[in-house]
Amino acid sequence: MKTIAVLTDQSSGAHTAGRYALHLAKKMKANVLLFNLIPATVPQLQAACGEPEMEETADNGLAAYALQLEQELAASSFTGSRLPEISFDAGHTELVDIMTAIDGHTDIAMVVTGVPDGEELANYILGNTCNRVIDWARIPVMVVPHDTVRMNPEKIAYATTLKGEDIQSIGELGELMESFGSELMVAHLCRTQPDKEVQTKEQALQTALYRDLNCGGVYFRSIDDSQSVRDWKWLKANKPTDIMALMLRPKEEMKSFFKRGQNADVAYHITVPVIIMPKRP
I need a labelling partner for 89 at 20 to 30 A (CA). Which of 36, 56, 103, 147 fits? Predict the structure, then answer.
């Protein structure tokens, strides 16, 4: 039985991510394991201000939160249907300890985290905390934005860099696709007119998609991304995307990709969950 690890700080954004993770787990026949991620800056700020640290309960509130999720899940499910088992790990609250614990669970297939209240998804992904989660994780990390609607994802978009490792990452999305009957759009965003070398790589990827992947509903799109003001409209090609995925890239490439919707005139925001696939050897 696979497990989805959820990092929560008990904020409203974290609750959105927790409920979304449960929705995924129910369809994927997986369980959920909660971790309480306490920002390291809180006790430091309290000490600096001369304030006493807040006394925490033994389980950091995870027992009550797990019970709340169980009750919500039961109330929204048919009697007798298989429901994910919700457990929690209250022994680890520092990020390094949480990620070490997750790495020790061979059954954990994905990490889910929410966007902190008052923060935008792209900025959070590029920030220190999420960067550390993504860098340490050997499994996919899903970041769930505020106000994400719990619905069955009909379309997943994967932003490719035309590298060989993409095929393995795309293949790992197969279970998610099959659980929800989703289609997968593999998109190459072209900053310039594709030359012969790029066209050859695009063709090689298309061939590999149909030859090596044992899942239907996958198609390739080469998308013109040369406009000076770049946005996220490509996610709506054919029909709106419900989840976006990409493989972890070097930090400057990640920054360029996620800052694409921000300019002096207007900011375009990502409103769908994002899955960062780990780099593969």
Answer: 147
Instruction: Confirm if 65 and 34 have CB atoms less than 8 A apart.
Output: yes
* Same CATH fold assignment for domains 3-144 and 155-277: yes
Cα distance between residue 15 and residue 34, in whole Å:
11
Q: pLDDT per residue over 55-95, tens digit each?
A: 445 677 899 999 999 999 999 888 888 899 999 999 888 99
Which of 44, 96, 34, 27 minimizes the C-alpha distance to 64? 34
Collapsing DSSP to helix, strand or coil, 18 comes out as helix
Task: Give yes or no for a contact between 31 and 86, defined as CB atoms under 8 angstroms apart.
Answer: yes
Q: Is pLDDT of 49 > 60? A: no
> Which amino acid is it at 80?
G
| Global pTM value | 0.89
Task: Give pLDDT tens digits for 231-270.
Answer: 888 898 778 999 999 999 999 999 989 987 666 555 567 8
Distance (Å, rounded) from C-alpha 233 to C-alpha 249?
A: 21
Task: Give the fold, CATH level 3, of 3-144.
Answer: Rossmann fold (3.40.50)
Contacts of 229 (CB under 8 A, 6+ apart): 263, 265
What are the sequence ranges of the domains in the chain? Answer: 3-144, 155-277
